[in-house]
Structure formats: structure tokens, C-alpha cells
Amino acid sequence: MDAQRVAVYGLGRVGMPLAAAWLKAGFNVVGYDVNERLIRDLCSLRFEWIDEPGVASIFREASQRGKLSFTVDGKRASSSSNIHIVAVPTPMDWGSKKFVSEPLLSSLNTIGSGLKKGDVVILESSVPPGTTCGVVKRRLEELSGLAADTDFYLGFSPERILVGRALEDLLKRYPKIVGGVGPQSTKIISDLYSRVVEKGVIVVRDSTTAEVVKLFEGVYRDVNIALANELALYSQSVGVDYYEVREAANSQPYSHLHLPGPGVGGMCIPVYPYFVLEFGVAKGFESKLILLARQINESMPHVVVNMLMREVLSHSLDTRTLRVTVLGASFRGNVSDTRNSPTHMVVSELKRLE
Ligand SMILES: NC(=O)c1ccc[n+]([C@@H]2O[C@H](COP(=O)([O-])OP(=O)(O)OC[C@H]3O[C@@H](n4cnc5c(N)ncnc54)[C@H](O)[C@@H]3O)[C@@H](O)[C@H]2O)c1
């Protein structure tokens, strides 16, 4: 086995740029994914799946130099590597608002099938607090018969990228947060990451703290977007122009009023508040503000449709013959990702009016 070979589990919007970042730092990388078509294409140097600037060119060059390979054989990826990076999806079930752990558990089974003494496992998928030192540690120890922080090293390092400029964010824009399940893990993972990212590493107390850092970043955005939405609706009701107020107010350095919008989408910000809420409840803390912010943002598609309907009625238009064009399907400007986009809700509300 090559020294310091990295296996990335899950080659999506996070896993691909991560693989590119480790390649850029000089490591050999194997990419593993359950999507056979994706792996077949990547093996044939067909990189149409990648829409992050800079990633395809790094992949092409590294593949040609034999430093990058792709596989659907998880055991092979695990046993031929000594650094394992988890970037699989960690979605939430929107009915129960509970974390869906299957992809994560399945990736742990894959890693566990080849885990060796001295290996390093870094979880980068966003997870509910306590996951790394709880289910992840337990599962890997059971599967390998090895002890975390003694025989192998385990920690959490959140991905802080913005889709569309992921590689730049990873390599240059932000420090990497690292928290291990023990002191050895923290040291080894932070040493590794200081070789990969320009902005260095912020070491936090433990893996749960690192998990919470990522989730609080999302909660901060969610609450502030909810505030902007509330103030915009307030402004409309009292007859002032929110945009004018915002611009004037933000000329003062302590005011960072966001833009209002039809809601919050993507796989991260709408989901993380629920991870935080559930953990709080389990520990006896009930948050009011986080839940309220979610409720405000989740009501926004409905608010948008109501605004439209008011206009329709005020112009005496006939909804039965009206044709609506919705511009913008992705959850944010300049990205192709439509997952959890509020546009879906706006469209389904409009269809109900037919
Ligand atoms: N997209 C973002 O902007 C962003 C930012 C920060 C953190 N995150 C977090 O990163 C994680 C990954 O997100 P993403 O956007 O890259 O997801 P994604 O859906 O784009 O990609 C996930 C990939 O994992 C693969 N996969 C699923 N189950 C697998 C398994 N058991 N083993 C191996 N591969 C498997 C899928 O086929 C897919 O290719 C999530 O936890 C997400 O919350 C995402």
C-alpha cells in the first residue's frame, strides 16, 4: 500500500472537492461511491458530474499520473487506504424531522471492513451532535476489534464550503475545524489537515464541539434569514420599503440585515436546526428561537403564493386561464442544486390553486 493513501467515501458535492484538495496536497486518493454509473464515468475520465470549478482538471491530471482511482469495491478502498474520509449524505426525514442514518451506517460498514491499526477516520458529513463519539466510534470499534484513539484515530471536521466555490473555500478561504474523540486523534487529524488547507486548523475540545460548530453556523444563517423575512413582511404591513431600510441600517457596522426570500433550501441550513433542536431536547433544553425561525422560513413559500394571489385578484385575473412562470429552481443563485428548494413548495402550492 502507498504511504498515506486517502479514501473518500461519497463523491458528491462535498466528496469531489475534498478528494481534489487532498490530491493537491500530494496524497494519493481513491474515491468510493455506491453510484455505479458515477464511478464508471469517473473511471473513464468523464467528469460531467462535476460542477465545482477546478476539480475536474485536478482529477484528470491525477488520474493520468496514477494518483487517483475510483471504485465501487468498498472493502478494496478501505483496506488499501489509511486515511478514510466520510462525505456521504446525512439527510433528515421531513415527516418525523429525524436524522436518516442509513448512508452513514453503510459507509461505516465499508470502512470497518478494511480498518487497520494506525488508520485515521475523519467524518466530514454534517451530523447530529454526539454522532462521532457515539454511533461512529462504537460501530468502527465493533467491526474492527480496534480501540479508537489508541489503535485507530477518529474525529470530526466539518465541511464549510459554499456550493459553487467549494475547492477555493476548502483550500484557501477558511480554517478547518477539527475535534477528535481523544487527544491522539485530534493531534493526528489536525496535523494532517494543516498540510491540506492554507488557513490552518482550529482545534476544538472534542468531536461533539466540532459537530456543533457546523450546526450553529447553519442555525445562525437560518435565524438571520428568518429575521429578514419577518422584518420585510413587517415593513410591507407598515408601509416602509425594507430594501431601503436595510441598506441604510447596514451602513452601521453592527447591523447585518439579510435579504428576504421565499424560504431556505439545500441539504444543510433547513436541516441543521432540527439536529440541534433534537439534541437539545434529549439533554433537557428546549429552544424557542431556533424552532420559530424554522417555522417562519418554512412559511415563506406560502407567503409568496399569497402575495401573488393578492396581485392576481387586484387585477381581476382569472386563475383558471393564468399561466405562471417560476424563475429560479435552485435553492440559491448561481448553483444547480434544487434539493429542498423553496421553489418546489411554491410550485406545489400554485398547482393546488388550479
Ligand atoms: N453540499 C454542501 O454545500 C454541503 C456543505 C457542507 C456540508 N455538507 C454535508 O456534506 C455531506 C455530503 O453532502 P453532499 O452535498 O456532498 O451530498 P451529495 O448527495 O451531493 O453526495 C453524496 C454522495 O454520497 C454517495 N453515497 C450515498 N451513500 C453512500 C455510501 N453508503 N457509501 C458511499 N457513498 C455513498 C452518493 O451516491 C453521492 O454521490 C452531507 O452531510 C451534507 O450535509 C454539504
UniProtKB/TrEMBL annotation:
Its EC number is 1.1.1.336. GO terms for molecular function: NAD binding; oxidoreductase activity, acting on the CH-CH group of donors, NAD or NADP as acceptor; UDP-N-acetyl-D-mannosamine dehydrogenase activity. Pfam families: UDPG_MGDP_dh, UDPG_MGDP_dh_N. GO terms for biological process: polysaccharide biosynthetic process. It comes from the Archaea. It catalyses: UDP-N-acetyl-alpha-D-mannosamine + 2 NAD(+) + H2O = UDP-N-acetyl-alpha-D-mannosaminouronate + 2 NADH + 3 H(+). Residues 5-189 form the UDP-glucose/GDP-mannose dehydrogenase N-terminal domain. Residues 209-298 form the UDP-glucose/GDP-mannose dehydrogenase dimerisation domain. Belongs to the UDP-glucose/GDP-mannose dehydrogenase family. PANTHER family: UDP-N-ACETYL-D-MANNOSAMINE DEHYDROGENASE. NCBIfam families: NDP-sugDHase. This is UDP-N-acetyl-D-mannosamine dehydrogenase.
